[in-house]
Amino acid sequence: MKVTTILGSPKKNGNTATVLGFFEQLIERDHEVNRINVAFNDVNGCLGCYSCQKVPGALGCVQDDYASSVFEQIIGAGAVVYATPLYCWAFPGQMKLLIDRSLCLTAGYGTPERKSLVEGKPAALLVTCDGPIENNADLIQGVFDRMSSFLKYVVVGKYVVPLCMTPDAVPGTGMQIAKKMAEDIVGA
After folding, report:
1. Boundaries of domain holding 24
2. Which residue in 187, 185, 181 sits closest to 77, CA to CA?
């Protein structure tokens, strides 16, 4: 299976990249892994023009930036993992831009006939945070659930690595969570 991982961290070697790397190493022997780092590529914000809604069955976004490539890779994947640090109880700005633009993965917005180019695709969320999960990483999970429901993903799991201040502090819990992700997503 092809697994596309989307790293939303502005730190190339931070906590999120470390745990995501554990997961990728666990599955790459039997599965194709494709990592996308959105923080270091040109992704513009959504224009709110709804042009994408006029092109059912295809990406219809009028913007020509890296997001189109990301969406094509998501469509072509067997499963998708959104990996992000927690910033102010939510996604960092770089990842939020991509999430806002995800509207173009659907057509028929606001109607019962809404279709999704990723309907039925397994998706997961990986979050790293400095603090605890409770009253800290709960909102981002709710946003992910709503996004997944809107896009008609099948949520495989939401995985939070709490209390990680530096990448060298995540190996124990981070590796356990990476193993659980691998089991849940690809049966490894």
Report:
1. 2-186
2. 185
